[in-house]
Design brief:
By secondary structure, the protein is of the alpha+beta class. The chain has two domains: 60 residues; 98 residues, Alpha-Beta Plaits. A five-stranded antiparallel β-sheet has the order 3-5-2-1-4. A hairpin with a 5-residue loop joins strand 1 and strand 2.
């Protein structure tokens, strides 16, 4: 019988499998690091392109603003003041000429409740270029509030609101437009209503024909 005696102070351990697994793990980490590096390079190039596009837009915007400021300063010179005033006058005139009374009256007929009379309509072109309408209606206050609510639901009228309220005068003032609606007896209350107007909004439905009156 042979007896084997191990005189080593530490037991023998086979390291080859461990080293093999360690090499595989290090290789996988190296591949992952390379992939991440490539991904970062691609993202960096995309960011550089986007930043270059933003810088180009900002430079173009600055250039246009500079040209506008220069042109405005040149137009404000005494020699060009008359031309500037004439240009502004023509722009205002064209804006007023493009205003369609027929379209406004048709749109108001759709939202005007019975018991109200529109005594005046005054279109205004505000500095932003949008159209604002100041209309004066006469009748009961509840009907005026109903009109404002109807205007809020309309796609043509924007942000309507009651501006003022006063007792009706002996004679209605027609300012820049016709009078229509239900005749109102003397002593009714007049309301000023302000509302934005979108004349370019396409109609979503055809005009419905008037209902026939049954005998």
């Amino acid at each position: 019988m042979r007896i084997t005696v191990n005189l080593a102070t530490r037991p023998y351990v086979e390291l080859s499998p461990i080293l093999r697994k360690l090499r595989i793990a290090m290789g996988a980490l190296a591949v992952l690091c390379v992939a991440l590096a490539i991904w970062m390079v691609v993202l960096n190039k995309k960011d550089q392109k986007r930043q270059a596009a933003v810088d180009a837009i900002n430079a173009r915007t600055t250039q246009l603003q500079s040209e506008r400021t220069s042109n405005e300063a040149r137009m404000r010179q005494p020699a060009n003041a008359e031309e500037l005033a004439r240009s502004q006058f023509l722009n205002d005139l064209f804006a007023r000429k493009s205003f369609s009374w027929t379209a406004v009256l048709m749109d108001l007929e759709e939202v005007l409740p019975s018991g109200l009379q529109v005594s005046s309509i005054e279109p205004q072109i505000i500095p932003s270029g949008d159209v604002q309408i100041r209309m004066r209606v006469a009748g009961d206050r509840d009907r005026a509030v109903e009109l404002v609510r109807n205007l809020e639901k309309s796609r043509r009228f924007l942000a309507p609101r009651l501006a003022s309220e006063s007792a009706q005068q002996q004679q209605n003032r027609n300012v820049g437009g016709p009078t229509f609606g239900t005749p109102i007896p003397p002593g009714a209350v007049e309301f000023d209503i302000l509302s934005g107007y979108n004349p370019l909004q396409a109609r979503t439905h055809e005009e419905k024909p008037a209902k026939e009156v049954e005998p």
